From TrEMBL:
The organism of origin for this protein: Ramazzottius varieornatus (Water bear)
Record region (Disordered): 83-108
Regions that span the bilayer: 29-51
Domain of life: Eukaryota
Keyword list, A-Z: Membrane, Transmembrane, Transmembrane helix
Protein name in UniProt: Transmembrane inner ear expressed protein
PANTHER family: TRANSMEMBRANE INNER EAR EXPRESSED PROTEIN
Keyword Transmembrane: yes
Pfam family, one: TMIE
Length: 108
């Protein structure tokens, strides 16, 4: 048997052949590429909207962020101290019969 030699196809002929075959779900190749690119853009937008990635621009803003963090820590500490004082005060005012006996719980 003699091998038949067909004329080599050019790039455009090969491209048309690939496009005429519908690779997936009857869509053209450019449809698939467009859908994938749009999906990536949507996912990137969603991730960027839900995650607050911000780099402070100036030294002033960096200092302000540090001061705000420090103030928030101090406020949390004050609230915890007040809660502990109230708890201790309430325990001191209770008669011994009403006080709960707490057994220590150890987590392994």
């Amino acid at each position: 048997m003699a091998a038949t030699t067909a004329a080599p196809r050019t790039f455009w002929e090969e491209f048309k052949y690939v496009q005429s075959d519908s690779p997936v779900l009857g869509m053209q190749l450019w449809h698939l590429v467009a859908i994938i690119v749009m999906g990536i853009c949507v996912m990137l937008s969603v991730v960027c909207c839900f995650i607050d990635w911000r780099i402070p621009r100036t030294r002033k803003e960096i200092e302000l962020d540090r001061q705000l963090r420090h103030m928030a820590e101090q406020y949390a500490e004050q609230v915890m101290n007040k809660m502990k004082e109230e708890e201790n005060r309430n325990e001191e005012d209770m008669p011994e019969s009403q006080k709960k006996k707490v057994t220590p719980v150890f987590k392994v």
